[in-house]
């Protein structure tokens, strides 16, 4: 693309072999392009990984995505330049976006979570539980200062807080393909935490 880039990989105990792959990539591309860091977290918390990753990010824009190849590259920077957006979020539920490889249960959970969120929070974005996003670095830093949620509800709060603070949000349809290796950390405890966090956001925003 001609753009300067760096890839920061944060391993928070994921079961998909992230650390081993990152170490291989670092040997191939060099530590100036591939930055590997580990954190220890008792509960799944994407927010913890974001904070840890930002400490090492040097660019003006930060693209956040899962490291297990569930996400495919989209036209994030083109969309950002079109509207000079502060945030560009991938959406599975708009335009030609979609989900492939999920069973009916997983689809119902995702759809249900987004539907409830739309009704209660009216965020003005179509996909709040996805994690494939582009942020201006200074915007991400400000949002991290405001957000208090943990786990999967963290993604929702980021968008809700962004709307409150007047940041602009663009959306890019993405095709989400279920992971080929490893397994999801989504379980009963995460779903309960999600619902509790959603009600807390509803009551406080």
UniProtKB/TrEMBL annotation:
BP term (GO), one: protein O-linked glycosylation via mannose
Subcellular location(s) of the protein: Endoplasmic reticulum
Domain of life: Eukaryota
Pathway as given in its UniProt record: Protein modification; protein glycosylation
UniProt-listed CDD domains: DPM1_like
Family the entry assigns: Belongs to the glycosyltransferase 2 family.
The protein's name in its UniProt record: Dolichol-phosphate mannosyltransferase subunit 1
Organism: Baryphthengus martii
